[in-house]
Specification:
By secondary structure, this protein is an alpha/beta fold. It contains 13 helices and 12 strands. It folds into 2 domains: 164 residues, Rossmann fold (3-Layer(aba) Sandwich); 162 residues, Dehydroquinate synthase-like - alpha domain (Dehydroquinate synthase-like, alpha domain, Up-down Bundle). The strands form 3 sheets. The chain has a 7-stranded mixed sheet with strand order 1-2-9-6-5-3-4, sandwiched between helices. A 3-stranded antiparallel sheet has the order 10-11-12.
Length: 335
């Protein structure tokens, strides 16, 4: 199944289907030098499947974990580009979760001022969110995505078969982003999630369609795309304060709850619990609020937050940071 993100100057193709990893050479232009970037947690047979389809490959394996999305790893990738003597006619391929995609994409965006980039997400979270939209970057100073660039891949390959080896906790984190997309943009999808009768491939497709439609209208995150930040202001604060004890999708789950009307909160908590996602944060609230000060959506003392009054509908609220903190303090997620 082919989806796409339509842009003014190009179109990003998204290939979705089981077994597509073995067809990457037909879907991507790998008949040139290819720097394949993966991490230490990706199964070796996935890596070999891609390497076998490249004309002139070089493999770089970075350590797994969000803490490695930093300047040191980025420098290592640039050194690998030099060692492989990549030119503007060559490409970088990411095979991994959101961390690998962000690093590889940022390297492709900045090496020689931009070379071709393909993304093969291996986690549900990356398939429905991180790989879609062209955001690349690094964490810096202890905060998420403080350095980066908008840089669209040439194409994206999503093979649901790759989820078979994913740990349950990582899979649940992906469902957090599917729930986010449904709650803000697709009420029917949210009902399907509540009922639990939709197959994974359909959830992936519909979540991708939601995000792709938004990105196509607002590639640079200036207006409509703000809806995709639902749950992320508080979620990023929790993620920074938790220092690795919680995964991104778990933090987004917690971040969504305070930004819903009370009747929606109850339904959301029920869905999150069904997917084994957290609904309470056991840490102290003050470090969370302090970390949220660095949110990229903050302008002076004002935040634009996404609020959901009913599934499938949202509004953008401008709140002073002090008013937002009051809302968060009243939330049922803190002990």
């Amino acid at each position: 199944m082919n989806l796409s993100i339509r842009r003014a100057d190009a179109e990003v193709e998204i290939f979705l289907g089981r077994g597509l990893l073995k067809k990457a050479g037909e879907l991507f232009d790998l008949s040139r030098k290819v720097l394949l970037v993966t991490d230490s947690g990706i199964p070796r047979d996935y890596v070999q499947t891609i390497l076998s389809q490249c004309k002139d490959p070089m493999l770089v394996t970075v350590p797994a974990g969000e803490e490695n999305k930093n300047f040191s790893t980025y420098e290592m990738l640039l050194q690998a580009c030099l060692a492989a003597d990549l030119t503007r006619g060559d490409c970088i391929v990411a095979l991994g979760g959101g961390m690998v995609g962000d690093l590889a994409g940022f390297s492709a965006a900045t090496y020689l001022r931009g070379i071709d980039f393909y993304n093969i997400p291996t986690s549900l979270l990356a398939m429905v969110d991180a790989s879609i939209g062209g955001k690349t970057g690094l964490d810096f100073g202890g905060y998420k995505n403080q350095v980066g660039a908008f840089y669209q891949p040439k194409a994206i390959l999503c093979d649901p078969d790759l989820l078979d080896t994913l740990p349950e906790r990582q899979l649940a984190c992906g469902y957090a982003e599917v729930i986010k997309m449904a709650l803000t943009l697709d009420k029917d999808l949210f009902y399907r999630i509540e009922s639990g009768d939709a197959p994974t491939e359909e959830l992936i497709r519909r979540a991708i369609e939601c995000k792709a439609s938004v990105v196509a209208k607002d590639e640079r995150d200036t207006d409509l795309r703000r809806v995709l930040n639902f749950g992320h202001t508080l979620g990023h604060g929790i993620e920074s304060a938790a220092k690795g004890s919680l995964l991104h999708g778990e933090c987004v789950s917690l971040g969504m709850i305070p930004m819903c009307a009370e009747p929606v909160q109850k339904r959301l908590v029920s869905v999150l619990e069904k997917y084994r996602l957290p609904t309470r944060y056991e840490g102290a609230i003050e470090p969370v609020l302090s970390a949220a000060l660095h949110d990229k959506k903050r302008a002076g003392d004002t935040l634009t937050v996404v609020f959901v009054n009913e599934p499938g509908n949202y509004e953008l609220k401008k709140l002073s940071f002090s008013d937002w903190k009051k809302e968060v303090r009243r939330a049922p997620i803190f002990s």
